Amino acid sequence: MKKLIYIIVMSVFIIALNACKTDKGTGDPAKKPKDNSIAQEDWKTFDKEEYSIQYPKNWILESSGTDGTMFTIASSLTSKNDSITENVNMQIENLSEKVELEEFAKNAITKIESFFTILTKERVKSDKDDYYKLIFSGDKDGVGVKIEQHYRVKNNKAYVIGFMSSKVDFDKDNVIAQKILSSFELK
Fold this sequence. Notes:
The chain contains three helices and eleven strands. The protein is α+β, with helices and mostly antiparallel strands. The strands form two sheets. An eight-stranded mixed sheet has the order 1-7-8-9-10-6-5-4, sandwiched between helices. Strand 9 (143-154) and strand 10 (157-166) form a beta hairpin.
């Protein structure tokens, strides 16, 4: 269980760390996600044995395992005023004991509430799979950030995939992030 808590806390900080690159952001009943048309023809696919995800060709994929992530997909800074590099990344945790999705999400929420303000928490059922969605905000290195994380549990593994942006740009950046997050598939 300590490992489970560790992965949740680490995933939050890894997302924050990856996003703060600058030039010099249980309880609700299950909901169905909005129908997003997923990848465009000019998008790339990162395809692994356990999962795949699609992303815009102008975003940069880093999959070396740095910082404990399976991958990070980052946009480039769009202006000199950008303080956050928007990114999507994922961690996988091998669970030593059987943990249900609700339990994993509950533990994540408990830990995240220590550092951030929880804005949304919900169980989502889709045609592909079920996951738990959490949106929270706070400050990282003096910059207001907003993070969306999706938790999946399958075959004694927890998959934590998240998107981070500045609070100011989150709604604008979230349009493309939702298409990326919606393209994620466990095999």
